[in-house]
Every structure is written in structure tokens, then in C-alpha cells.
Amino acid sequence: MNPISAAGAPLAGVRVADLSRVLAGPYATMLLADLGAEVVKVESPRHGDDTRSWGPPWAGGESAYYLAVNRGKRSLAVDLKDPDGLAAVRELCARSDIVVQNFRPGVVDRLGLDHAAVRERNPAVVYCSISGFGPDHRPPDRPGFDLIVQAESGLMAVTGEPAGPPVKVGVAITDVLTGLNAAVAVLGALVRARATGRGEHVTVSLIGSALSGLVNVAQSALVTGEEPRRYGNTHASIVPYQAFGTADADIVIAAGNDALYQRLCAALDRPDLAADPRFAANPGRVAHRAELIGALSATLRERGAAEWLDRLRRAGVPAGRVRGVLDAVRAADEAGDDVTLSLPHPTAGPLDLVRAGFRPAAEPHGGTGEAAPPHGSPGPLPPPLLGQHSTAILAELGLSEQEIAAMVERGAVHQHETR
């Protein structure tokens, strides 16, 4: 199989068999692709990844959900119930450095794609199993969806207004955290595998990722033995650290220490609040939260957001505007953060995508929004159409034209026909 990753990228020459679907697994493998790995996405020939149908909205017939987490991959649409199709995927795993799967418990064992079976042919493989509740959870077959895990992990309980009900985070955050954890764990195992020639079986769960992602909130609960409260857009331990209304829009202010609080008071022309002994140190501000926030809120409503943000910036006080998502993406690009890239998609045309939160050292920054491949390489691939690369991948795995044609004919393989 010929690597298609960019020369000079951190994971150039690394092959990934992506047997995952929906969000956590595909997000992890997309991050590996962003680092230069060659990723083959294995999908059902009939419907593909579940997220292909999760629309609207759509772009060129592809759902926005699917497009968000599948760039940089090639699609092999093959029926795992077909003996030849299953044999091809087993061969793919045998030739890959990394295998990522999130099948329901027991499925990979029945298919002969479990860690033990793959390792028998590929001792150096880094094999990553992603699940909702972990390999030792009881009952073992419990399905894991982000909404369920947000509820079960306590994340919903600490999200929302103090007097309101528990609220889920607006994005499937436990899936995203799991994808990040999976990518980190895989990379660590890959380093060791390259040094020793022995692979590892990495397990990552949504519940473990969610609980570890509670960080200080979970630690506070363990220290106190009490359930944390909901604080809405405020902070349990820092005041002022929250959203405020102004004359025309909402802003947030993060005065994370006593010096920043003094600067805030100066920017707001409130020397009385700076001198008040109740508010001199953060523990006092937490104790007298209601009085201080009331005074700050009244002052901030006297002027517009732009004027306050300019004053706070010049005073060195961390602050920002509460933005919508589209406004946020555009503002970040305009500010030079270069958060989007544009790739030519075969049906959607020029497709804007949000970059990963990291930048490899070799990747140039320029704020152009264009994918800038290093060393004259073709650059990242757009999210693939279902079965876009099926026949090419099967040929790389050693199947003959006749064998591939027969699989396509009987529906065991789907090859997207370019028009």
C-alpha cells in the first residue's frame, strides 16, 4: 500500500485502519490524518458511516456532521459479512500501524478483527478500542451515547443556571474528549511500538473521558464530599469571572487574580470597589459575590460592549464578546488565528472546514484559509464520498481486477462512480 501522507509530516508513512464510526473514533483518526497519517475509513457499502445521514444541513449531498470529522481519509466501502470483504479488511489491519474500532462488545471477536487476532499477524500493531463505558463495565453491552454519558458523568449536573435544570453541553463534548484521549494514547503507544517492535491494546471510554474532563470540579467534590452546584456563566472559586450585560451586547470578564481585579476597577472608573476591603482578595469577593456583581453589572450597563472591551484591553484585563458560532469562526480568521481551511470537494466544491486545535511545527501560518501542503505534496484530502477509493485500496491489498469486479458486482463492495 502506497502512503499518501505529506512528506515531512510527523506521521508520514503511518497507516491507520479506521473501523470506527460516528464521532469519537472518526475524530481521533482525523487528528492522526492531520498529522500526516494515511487513514483508510472502512464503511458499510450500503449506508456508510451513520453520520452520513445525520442532516440537514448538507453540502453537495454530504451531511455537515460527517464532513466535520472525516477529512484526510480514503473510503473503503466493503461488506464485513462477505467472506472476501472481511478477508480484505483483515489484510488491511495486518498491514496497518494503527487500528481504531468502536464496535459493540463482541462484534470484533465474531469478525476476527479483535486485538488478539490482529496482533497474531501484526505484532507491532497499536490497537485502539473505543467504548461508551469501558471494557470492564457492567453490564458489558451497555451502549454509550454522548447524551447518556453527559448525564451519567455528572457533566449535566454542573451545567446550567443555578435555579434551572441540568443542561447538556451544546456539542457532543464527551465524544470530542474521547477522540482527543484516543489520539494521545495511540501516539504514546506508537512511540513505544517503534522502539520495541511490540504493539499495545489501548482502551478509551466516553465515561472515563468525561469524568477526567471534570478536572477541578471532580476534585472539589472528592475533597469536600459534597455535590458541586451549578454556577451558570459564573465560576465557583473566582469572582468576577463571568458574563455581563452591557448597553448593547453581552461580554465576559475574567479577573483571575487580585491584580487583575484592581485593573478592572480602574478601567470601569470604580475606585470605590478597588478600595472596599470586602473585595480586596479573591476569597472575600467570593464571599460577597452578590454585592460585587451587582455593582459591576450596574456600571457595565452604562456603555456599549465595544467601548468596554477597548478599555479592558488597554488595561490588560482578559475580556471578550459573547459570539455566535459563525461570528466566532469568522472573527478568529480575521484576527489571524487561521482556524479554517478550504479543500476542493468532489460534490460540494470549495469546502470550508475547521482546523484541529494544534499546528504541526512544519505547517506554515498565513491566515489564508487555504490548505498549504509542505514539500510539494498534494495536501490533505477532503472528506471522502462513500466508497470513493474502494477499488484502489483493494488493489493495494493485493486483490486482482477480477476479484474486485466480482465483489462490486455482488454488492460486497461499493465504488463511487465519478461523473
Automatic annotation (TrEMBL):
The keyword Repeat does not apply. Residues 375-385 have a biased composition (Pro residues). Gene3D superfamilies: Crotonobetainyl-coa:carnitine coa-transferase, domain 1 (3.40.50.10540), formyl-coa transferase, domain 3 (3.30.1540.10). InterPro entries: CoA-transferase_III_domain, CoA-Trfase_fam_III, CoA-Trfase_III_dom3_sf, CoA-Trfase_III_dom_1_sf. GO terms for molecular function: transferase activity. It comes from Marinactinospora rubrisoli. This is CaiB/BaiF CoA transferase family protein. PANTHER family: SUCCINATE--HYDROXYMETHYLGLUTARATE COA-TRANSFERASE. Keywords: Transferase. It comes from the Bacteria. The keyword Lipoprotein does not apply. Residues 359-387 are annotated as: Disordered.
